[in-house]
Amino acid sequence: MVDLVDIANDKNEELIHSTLINRPHFDLPSAHECESCGNEIPEQRRALGNVKLCIDCQIAIESDSKHNFRTVGY
Ligand SMILES: [Zn+2]
Which residues have C-beta under 5 Å from ligand 1, the single-atom ion? Predict the structure, then answer.
């Protein structure tokens, strides 16, 4: 019975692991300046790879798309 629980846990970890692996690859070069506002993108953020926007613009776009998504149903 203990083995069944262990197997279930293993499956979950496998799923989480493959989900992480299947995420988009951030191996493209990052921009030094934000494409939207032109502010410098911090080195720490650029290290993620494929970063084109500063944090402020990224948050703005993400909150915009969430907002739009939420209002689509109305
Ligand atoms: Zn920006």
Answer: 34, 36-37, 39, 54, 57
